Amino acid sequence: MSQNPSPASSGETNPRNVVTADGIPAAASAEGTTAPGTTAPGTAAPEAAVRPSRRTGVDQRKRTLLRLNASMVIGAVLVILIFALALVSFLWTPYDPSAVDPVARLQSSSLEHPFGTDMFGRDTLTWVMYGARITLMVGIVAVGIALLIGTPIGVIAALFAQYPWGAWIGAVIMRANDILLAFPALLLAIIFAAVYQPGTGPAMVAVGIAAIPGFARVARSGTMQVLGSEYVRAARASNRRVPAIALFHVLPNIAGMVIVQASVAFAISILAEAGLSFLGLGTQAPVPSWGRMLQESQQFLSTHPGLALWPGLFIALAVLGFNLLGDGLRDRFDPKMEARGNG
User: Fold this and answer.
1) Fewest beta carbons within 10 Å, which of 53, 145, 189, 271?
2) Helix (H, G, I), strand (E, B) or coil at 133
3) What is the rounded distance in angstroms from the CA atom of residue 121 to the CA atom of residue 100?
4) Do the Cβ atoms of 151 and 247 come closer than 8 Å?
5) Angstrom distances, CA of residue 189 to CA of 58, 128, 211
6) Is the pLDDT reported for residue 30 higher than 80?
């Protein structure tokens, strides 16, 4: 009777009886090892890792950018409208702003006078257009004064504060800046009106001086942040002079903050000029001014409210436009807001 040869006698080795150096049966080790990119028999393929689509990330950033810049777009449209109104007044106006027509006094809106007429028969639309000139001129001059004086003050104070021997100089500069905060534009305008005659010039200077502390604080804060950056340390290590660091490293990096402050200060200047003209300390007759239009219309509020509606509406639109523009620019230039949007 024949017998089947055993694996040992036939010279064949059963892989289940072979043990690897790690103490694992060779069969088990072979079953657990598969070629790269293949799947072991009888096992399910693992699910592929779900990765966010690059297209989805781009769309999300676009939506975030549009949301952040919505206020800037609306503000820019309103500001362009006010500037266009002022520029058009240099080329064309419906009537002469100094023309008086007693027959047409206190008329309501019509085709001949879309905004009506005032108590002297002057066209309200013409005065609104001319008033935009004064409003923008006061804002530009006042913000220019504050920017050109306040920004260097803040930068110089921050530069002195980084040295032990100059810290007290920076502190004195900022304390003097705080003292200036105690003099609002109205008080300065009253002082200038007492020394000089009330007018647009003293009002612009008063508003500009009152806005200097805001620019100085913003410039100092931004300069302190820039001075702690790596590229400024590298510039110091290369023996670059302090004026060069301030000019080529500090000012370009705080320009965004200063622009935002200028936009907000412009809105404050418009309100300040309108208030000073309303009180008789700003633009004087016969120059058109939105604030003086409000002052002249207050006695007709119950009978002819349109006289106060139009100048008040354009003051509100101008202030709203510059405030929204400032908010949009802040969101655009602020790295924290940009990081939040990308997140």
Assistant:
1) 53
2) helix
3) 5
4) no
5) 52, 24, 13
6) no
Looking at the 3D structure of the chain, how many domains does it have?
1
Token couple for 283: 């633009």
- What CATH number does the domain containing 314 carry? 1.10.3720.10
Whole-prediction pTM:
0.76
- The per-residue pLDDT for range 82-93, each reduced to its tens digit, is 999 999 999 999
What mean pLDDT value characterizes the chain? Answer: 82
147 within a domain of the structure (yes/no): yes
Q: Which of 329, 330, 327 is nearest to 319 (CA)?
A: 327
In-domain check, residue 130: yes
- Amino acid identity at 238: S
Q: What share of the chain is helix, strand, coil (3-state, %, to 5)?
A: 70, 0, 30
Six token digits for residue 19:
């043990």
Q: Is residue 86 part of a domain?
A: no
Whole-number Å distance between alpha carbons of 138 and 288 = 13
Q: Tell me if 74 is assigned to some domain.
A: no
Q: Provide the b/e sequence for 146-180 (b: ≥16 CB within 10 Å).
A: bbeebbebbbbbbbbbbeeeeeeebeebbeebeeb
Among 172-176, 212-216, 255-259, 334-338, where is mean pLDDT lowest? Answer: 334-338
Q: CB under 8 Å to 33, separation ≥6 — which residues? A: none
Residue 160 CA to residue 174 CA, distance in Å, equals: 11
Domain interval for residue 306? 124-342
d(CA 27, CA 2): 31
Give residue 25's pLDDT: 53
